[in-house]
Amino acid sequence: MKASKIIAWVGFVAMTVGLMNGFLNGDFFKDGGELFQNPWGVMSLIDLYVGFTLFSMWIAYRERFIPIAVAWIIGMMVLGFFTACVYVLLGLYTSKGDWLKFFLGYQKEALIEGELAKRVKPEVVEKPEIPEIPEIPEIPEIPVNSNENLEEALPGKEENE
Question: Where do the TM regions start and end (predicted)?
Answer without folding.
Answer: 6-28, 40-59, 65-93
